[in-house]
Amino acid sequence: MNMQFHTFENFPALADALSRQWLEVIRSTPGGASFALAGGSTPAPVYQRLDQLLSDLEQHQLIKLVATDERWVADSDAQSNEGLFRRCLSASSKRWQLVSLKNAASNPEVATDAISVRLAEQLPQAFSAVLLGMGADGHIASLFPGAPTQHDELACLAAVHPQTRQSRMSLSLPRLLNTERIWLVITGAEKRQVLERATAENLPVAALLHEAGCTIDVFWCP
Ligand code: 6PG
Questions:
Q1: How far is the CA of 110 from the centre of ligand 1 (A)?
Q2: Which of 41, 66, 149 to mutate to test the pocket of ligand 1 (most atoms within 8 A of CB)?
Q3: CA dihedral 12, 13, 16, 19 (to 10 degrees)
Q4: How many Å lie between the centroid of ligand 1 and the Cα of residue 18?
Q5: 40 lines ligand 1 (CB under 6 A)
Q6: In ligand 1, which atom is closest to the CA atom of 67?
Q7: 151 C-alpha vs ligand 1 centroid, how far in Å?
Q8: Is 39 in the pocket of ligand 1 (CB under 6 A)?
Q9: What are the chain's domains?
Q10: How does DSSP classify residue 108?
Q11: In a structure prediction context, what are the per-residue pLDDT tens digits for the chain, which is 222 residues long?
């Protein structure tokens, strides 16, 4: 397990540091970088800060973007992660090519084959970076405790949130691990403790920590 822990006094400082590192990854990938991004309530200020920083970027290769997981709701729904990305990355919207985890299927279970083909066609390479959050139960993306982390050889799998029963499409653990960098963004004492006991409790995030082929940079503030 190769984890680097970066502590910040507050979230604005964390968001500024991470977005500057992210900008350098984009700058150093002239052929066009690709990212898998978490949804949820934590990372939005990081996305908004990057959106500001991108306004000065000279290069114009498209940057590819996919959600680490998506709620199976309409794009206009406040719960939509892809909708969150559109709102946060609005000034730099022309720089991004979003590869959607959704299609017109009624539920993610029937969409996994089609979305997996889409991912293989549009994101065949390792990600330049994956930005993950973590739930208080140690889940990452929509890989929940006790649930599968992959479905056959597909790059994605259907999931159900254990509390809300919300249908989700998630990237599989192997697809998330196919990346050059992993940024794990968590806040507060509780999540720090969850991370510290993740291995002992065999939480989903522990699989990430132990199977990652790259360093995991944890960005944390109180
Ligand atoms: C999602 C995310 C999910 C999130 C964690 C943490 O769709 O909700 O991808 O994996 O990162 O649930 O969520 P918070 O940042 O809201 O605590």
A1: 23
A2: 41
A3: -100
A4: 17
A5: yes
A6: 9
A7: 21
A8: yes
A9: 3-221 (3.40.50.1360)
A10: G
A11: 799 999 999 999 999 999 999 999 999 998 999 999 999 999 999 999 999 999 989 888 899 999 999 999 999 999 999 999 999 999 999 999 999 999 999 999 999 999 999 999 999 999 999 999 999 999 999 999 999 999 999 999 999 999 999 999 999 999 999 999 999 999 999 999 999 999 999 999 999 999 999 999 999 999
Ligand 1: distance of its center to the CA of 59 in Å?
31
